[in-house]
Specification:
This protein has about 90 residues and is of the alpha+beta class. It has one domain. It is about 25% helix and about 35% strand. The protein has one helix and five strands, in the order βββββα. It is elongated and about 45 Å long. It starts with a strand and ends in a 7-residue tail after the last helix.
Length: about 90
């Protein structure tokens, strides 16, 4: 299904069920407190990365904002690099 757009690239909806990989990173802060963050990468039907989700920080915290922004920065080249019109 293609979502109509005006002046932008066309976007195609990903299937509700798709392959994804989740990795978790655990480490200890200087005070000994354990911290855990997760990254999930979702793929399209042919195995190209299409979405990135980063989590683990408390909602509303500075780190949650950093993770949200980082996910957008990582995700943008994935979408552009795998656009059908660029892979011809």
């Amino acid at each position: 299904m293609t979502i109509p757009s005006f002046g932008q690239t066309r976007r195609r909806r990903l299937p509700n069920r798709r392959r994804a990989i989740t990795e978790t990173v655990r480490f200890a802060r200087g005070n000994g407190e354990a911290v855990e963050y997760s990254a999930t990468i979702g793929f399209d039907e042919v195995g190209r990365p299409k979405e990135v989700f980063l989590s683990g920080a408390r909602d509303g915290s500075d780190m949650a904002a950093v993770l949200a922004d980082a996910a957008i920065i990582i995700r943008s080249p994935c979408k552009v690099a795998s656009a059908p019109e660029l892979s011809a």
